[in-house]
Design goal:
Elements lengths: L1 E7 L2 E6 L11 E9 L5 H4 L9 E2 L4 E8 L11 E3 L3 E2 L5 H4 L10 E2 L7 E4 L2 H4 L1 E2 L9 H7 L2 H11 L7 E5 L3 H12 L4 E5 L3 H10 L3 E3 L3 H11 L5 E6 L4 H10 E9 L10 H5 L4 E4 L4 H13 L11 E4 L3 H9 L6 E4 L1
Parallel strand pairs: 11-12, 11-14, 12-13, 14-15, 15-16, 17-18
Antiparallel strand pairs: 1-2, 1-4, 3-5, 3-9, 3-18, 5-6, 6-10, 7-8
The structure holds zinc ion (ZN).
The site of zinc ion has 9 residues, from helix 2.
Amino acid sequence: MHGAMIYAPGDVRFESLDDPKILQPTDAIIRTAVTCVCGSDLWPYRGAEPVGAPHPMGHEYVGFVEEVGSAVTSVTPGQFVVGSFATSDNTCVNCQNGFQSGCLHREFMSTCQADYVRIPNAQGTLVATDEVPGEELWPGLLAVSDVMGTGWWAADAAEVKPGSTAVVVGDGAVGLCGVIAAREMGAERIIAMTRHESRQKLAREFGATDIVTERGDEGVERIKEMTGGIGADSVMECVGTSEAMRQALQSARPGGDVGFVGVPHEVAVDGEELFFSPVGLRGGPAPVRRYLPDLIDRVLSRRIDPGKVFDLTLPLEQVAEGYKAMDERRAVKTLLTP
Ligand SMILES: [Zn+2]
């Protein structure tokens, strides 16, 4: 089979790789239907994270079950399945508490930009659809495996409620999916912070009621002006930088909530600033598995279409161009078809 390997910052190659094999009785092998490049894949691509030895890439997937280990009974070969970037047994105490991203047997996916993928903890991780969905729904279901699940977590962690005001910091795929989540959860006002015209348009399509183009202190000022000087009920931080985190903390009203889901890179929060930001804080890797059945339903019933975050589709063999386009911000998110 073939798949993506990263060798160094800016150097992603499409190569012939060994076919994945069942290593544990709890594994499954899937044939990739569609996969994609994540905003977080850009951290090593841009040299913001060390690459180390050459390794495969990708953690988002939907596909067809090829083979299952002897302990896997929940899915069978031929079924179309959706999973999460963090695998989970779905039975341990953390899973039962709804935090499958903290599963005691968690393994992060990292080989998904390939024709075939080994899924550890397949029994707890994979959710099969009743029938094979139409191809037009695959991008939306793929989004559910990471960015839509993470956007949902951002809104959930920020306690978005019917009638509330929600702010989204970050206009990447997760931030845009955060807008969808806030609308689905009934927020009355959804303020998307973005300077890019195409992303503003998509944010509005997804349910944003207001756009703020300012950033940093000026962005916070605008949010305060728009909320009677008080701040927003819920703020979703979907970037992972110190600037975005400060903006989020300062944009929430006293007693409001911040959900932070951007993978942090050298984020530093000043203790005093934190002390004087009387907000609820919750974040981390999204417990996507908890949301999968519900989000799959919303996509299949065409209530939401998070697949619209993919604005570039390339054959898997052009994966290198997929990274480049996102790095240069020519694309929000690249869909890859084997
Ligand atoms: Zn678990």
